[in-house]
Design brief:
The complex is a heterodimer of chains A (242) and B (212). By secondary structure, chain A is mainly alpha-helical. Chain A contains 11 helices and no strands. In chain A, helix 2 packs antiparallel against helix 7 and helix 8 packs antiparallel against helix 9. Chain A is elongated and about 65 Å long. Chain B has 212 residues and is mostly helical. Chain B has 10 helices and no strands. The longest helix of chain B has 35 residues. Classes of the chains: A mainly alpha (242), B mainly alpha (212). Chains A and B meet through helix 3, helix 4, helix 7, helix 8 and helix 9 of A and helix 4, helix 5, helix 8, helix 9 and helix 10 of B.
């Protein structure tokens, strides 16, 4: 089986044209990027507001967990039958998939900020929105980024199902390989998705290094210990769906 | 949709049963494997880092990819349900190892020391003191694992074994949205009921948490 895979991957025809690997990777990244943009636009503000005010926390955790139980494949097929084929259905399904970890990560991150720090900011005369944007969000960055990485990972992995509704992306190879009983092609598709997921995650780790304040990274261990109990239920939600 | 449901109750029930079986057997096996692994991880820092790293990596493998690769590694047929169950077991272990470590670390140090002072040997202390004490955190991890597993089973439908996921494929190819909606709703109900049952088990098995 492995020789067939190597043969598939080293056949130059598989790397050219509209069904070539580079094009499929770009399509895959396009679905991922669009879905993440929409999901970030929903998950970050809602998570930050609920985390800051402390109101509706139970609802947010409940909604996040409920959405996680939604099977992406079912959601995707419903949207396709409702809206017709096209880019919208997979983007919608993938956005729904990405919102829970973002929401949970942002909410848990903001809640886990040391109340003494928030009090100090308030005592210094900061307005509420300043506290949120200048104190809470920067302090919550490690957990927010945990949510972003977990969401992106799921979206990259699940974007394969776009191929099930006549779109492109790396899922094309898996679905076509299955239909044609071309095992090498399926395996190549699966391998490429896994590699892409890992590469994208590494890029995000790099971005995280740049964005997260070094002060937070140093005291990471003690912070985690101090806040773990309070945020456990919320933090546990920052995991994978499909 | 209702008419279809009335004609197909048998199908929905048998697929739901299959779905639960495919989703929960891996959770049980994964749990049994995760407890000793998590215990090992609490023994030494180096071991913990290695275990977290390895399972973090495994967790990043997409489900569809894992489903395709496993038959090659296991030597099974591509359409064999074992592949799906093995994949779900792997994800469960990856998810639960962290919970087990968290759970065991949540046992107060005084309690552990008191048990030792009372003459509990390590193995017995683990099963009769540390494990029961960590049930609340373990249940939190199990709930996430079970719900994720139930929603993941549907992906197997792309490879012909997916419980309620089969309704998605069938409805899609016949252009019948009702069938898919029923599949999604049934899948949600399974997840909610399983979640509630786990909460109940957690409460029943920790009566001391409710004693004033």
């Amino acid at each position: 089986m492995w020789p067939a895979l190597v043969t598939w991957l080293t056949t130059s025809a598989h790397w050219q044209g509209a069904n070539g690997v580079p094009v499929r990777i770009l399509e895959h990244l396009q679905y991922t990027g669009l879905s993440m943009l929409f999901a970030l636009a929903i998950g970050l503000p809602v998570g930050a507001l609920v985390g800051h005010t402390g109101r509706g926390g139970v609802l947010v955790v409940g909604v996040a967990n409920g959405l996680r139980a939604l099977p992406s494949l079912g959601l995707l097929t419903i949207v396709v039958l409702g809206l017709g084929l096209g880019l919208a259905p997979p983007i919608a399904a993938l956005t729904v998939l990405a919102v829970p970890p973002l929401l949970a990560g942002t909410y848990a991150g903001i809640r886990a900020v040391d109340p003494a720090v928030v009090d100090a900011a308030r005592g210094m005369g900061m307005r509420e929105w300043e506290i949120l944007l200048k104190v809470e969000v920067p302090n919550a960055m490690p957990l927010i980024f945990g949510g972003i990485r977990s969401a992106t990972l799921q979206v990259v992995a699940t974007a394969t199902i776009a191929a099930d509704v006549a779109l492109g992306g790396l899922g094309r190879y898996v679905i076509d390989g299955l239909a044609q009983l071309d095992y090498a092609q399926m395996l190549a598709g699966a391998l490429l998705v896994a590699v892409l997921a890992i590469v994208v995650d590494l890029v995000l780790v790099g971005v995280q290094r740049l964005v997260v304040s070094p002060g937070l990274a140093e005291s990471g261990v003690s912070r985690r210990r101090a806040t773990s109990r309070r945020t456990r239920n919320a933090a546990v939600s920052v995991t994978r769906g499909n | 949709m209702i008419a279809w449901l009335n004609d197909h109750w048998d199908l929905v029930f048998s697929l739901s049963g299959q779905h639960l079986y495919l989703a929960l057997v891996p959770v049980v096996i994964g749990f049994v494997l995760a407890v000793p692994l998590g215990w090992l991880a609490t023994r030494s820092g180096a071991l913990r880092a290695t275990i977290f790293y390895v399972f973090g990596f495994i967790y990043s493998i997409p489900s569809l990819a894992l489903l395709v690769v496993l038959p090659v590694l296991l030597g099974t047929q591509i359409l064999d349900p074992i592949n799906l169950m093995a994949a779900l077991t792997i994800y469960t272990v990856a998810l639960l190892v962290r919970s087990v470590v968290d759970a065991l670390s949540s046992v107060p140090w005084e309690v552990r020391t008191a048990a030792t002072a009372m003459g509990f040997r390590p193995l017995r202390r683990f099963f009769s003191v540390e494990l029961p004490m960590s049930i609340p955190v373990l249940v939190a991890g199990l709930r996430v694992a079970a719900v994720s597993s139930i929603s993941l089973v549907s992906v197997g439908a792309l490879l012909g074994v997916g419980g309620l996921g089969n309704l998605f494929n069938d409805g899609f190819h016949r252009n019948f949205i009702g069938e898919i909606v029923i599949g999604v709703v049934a899948s949600l109900i399974l997840a909610l009921v399983t979640d509630a049952v786990l909460v109940l088990i957690g409460r029943l098995s920790t009566p001391w948490t409710r004693v004033g």
